[in-house]
Fold:
Amino acid sequence: MNMDSSHNPAKNTSTISDEKVSPQHINYAEQGMELKAMYSSLDEKQIPTLLFEKNPHLWVSDPQQVNDISQRLGWISLPDYYLEHAAEIIEFASQIKNEGYTYAVLLGMGGSSLCSEVARETFGSVEGYPQLFVLDNTEPDAIVDLEDKIELEKTLFIAASKSGNTAETLSFFQYFYQQLEKKNHKNPGDHFIAITDEGTPLVKIAEQHKFRKVFINPSDLGGRYSVLSAFGLVPMALMGIDIIELLNSARQMELSCKAVPSAMNPGISLGVILGIAQRHGRDKVTFILSSSISSFGLWVEQLIAESTGKEGHGLIPVSGETPGQPGVYGKDRIFIYMFLSTDHNGDDTAKVESLEKAGHPIVRIELPDKLALGGEFYRWEIATAIAGIIMNINPFDQPNVEESKKNTNQLLADWVKDGAFKKSAPLLQTGDISIYAGKKVESLASGKYNTAGDLVNSFTTQAKPDDYIAFLPYFMLTSSREEILQNWRHHLRDELKVATTLLNGPRYLHSTGQLHKGGPDTGLFILLMGDDEESLPIPESKFGFDILHQAQALGDFRSLDEKGRRVIRIHLGKDIDAGLNQLYQSVYNKHHIS
Structure:
């Protein structure tokens, strides 16, 4: 069956992307009929119209949930809203540039930070504008590493939190505010701005500490749908990015989706494709992204995973896997090939074509330039919302996110009381490496294994064809550490024919963590951590960043275990690099990988 859902938007913009669904997207005629029937059904129910009327009944009927969703649909009209308010943001960014600020540091987590990370890696700062850094890691080494890269007196700190009480954001603020006080700065608040909702605790903190500005964000949208709001636009403008052109791209995508029949609708058709793919077991949404826009995966991971991963269902985003040969992939994949026209994509294109010939479903999205990401942010928000309708889930809540926070807080309270975390016996200890297991994998008795590699390989080989293996490192990902973990995940993919993910903690707690606990029980989780050598104090707190960081890792392990997930926790000791190398070599020697 030949399916082509490309669209021809208005020609008055250069930053609208083109999407094509390959013929092999539908492997069986009945699934093609199912797609057509779904398009017709959505049109008969006037979904394209009702969506833009912000009708919460599209997803649920329960009165309480209807009310909650009605407070989460403001993202639909964000391009229009911020095109009217962009001038204020641009003027502020120009002021900061003219005052000679050299650095800007975003202090935030999840939806408040991932859009800035994409902007930083994709665009970089325009000459003369501050260099942007993103701090979303509570590990002391990550904070010290950032301090070494900036000059405090030339840095603007952006405290970003929708709720205004995100523990990590407030801890980062307290730390850097104190560092400026130590420099005898007259008013450290001059170096801070806030982005938050109206009336939050962060607003009060900003007033008390005389922040130079507070950007009040529209409150009728969730964090993961906030990229085209102040959370994304303010850091971008501070870098010198043309946010008006970015918003124009999003606005053009909005017009291409608004009241357009489903089959021709770039956002709705993509959502239908994802939803139908999930129904047929193709729930591993695998992104192949060209080099200049590869960081887009960081943002879209959260959007998809946190929105759809609940009630035992979910779309599992897979980003950062280098494309392999068709034979290493199972029937649980749908591929998104997203590329910039000007990138050199010959190798990726050839691999995608081979996947297509092998019968794997491919969605191609071509961007004319980087600013077309504005339209892609909007398209994927629409698609995710529509996929929620197909999957019969509420894409705007995150019922399991609080579980890890609750366990972390309990662990911190126990530490304050006892001065230490309660430790259980490891399943295996060899040298500086200790391995702990959740209840579901405790049957891996330590007596069977001589090495860490033996135990870990026994764990990963439990993976079934539709499973995925998630690497969850709770330490700063240096290039050498990331190389080891990337090599490891690719070996596992090629040998076991399963999807793999690599997600840095505690960042993923505000991102894919919802999917891990609320989504399908198809994940095998390898949580890696070291002993924080440096104790960095958090002002006005009874514990430092090292204790907070450890509590977050241990709290997430407990949450995964309590949900009955297959999880192991590997402590690498004080020397993370040596421990990780030793662990990988132990696994490597078992499999004789070359």
